[in-house]
Amino acid sequence: xxxxxxxxxxxxxxxxxxxxxxxxxxxxxxxxxxxxxxxxxxxxxxxxxxxxxxxxxxxxxxxxxxxxxxxxxxxxxxxxxxxxxxxxxxxxxxxxxxxxxxxxxxxxxxxxxxxxxxxxxxxxxxxxxxxxxxxxxx
Length: 138
Known about the structure:
Layout: H1 4-28, E1 32-38, E2 41-47, E3 52-64, H2 65-68, E4 71-78, E5 82-89, E6 92-98, E7 102-108, E8 113-117, H3 121-132
Parallel strand pairs: 6-8
Antiparallel strand pairs: 1-2, 2-3, 3-7, 4-5, 5-6, 7-8
């Protein structure tokens, strides 16, 4: 029989983990992402509950997070659920906001690198190609 103190500790740990997952999902997960054209410049807008990111787009590629962000330098995450933070990878330092493994790898006008993992990544990428006058290759 498991002692009562250990059982209470296990239940408390489980409840704390669940609360932290709910907080991370609510605060750090991107809720909506889209492209916006303003004064002949293209911006990727990423809305989270506590922050809205406006990224001036230079170039966008469709990639998987493991291709661009390999070592977490700072941030939070639950494998397979959410990644939010600064990573190092083959392209250099990347700021990642992701709730999907596939997403947008963005080179901004100021030279910063971003990975935005959202379910609508393919649609945003198609819109980006249309804005540039390119055609999507299946």
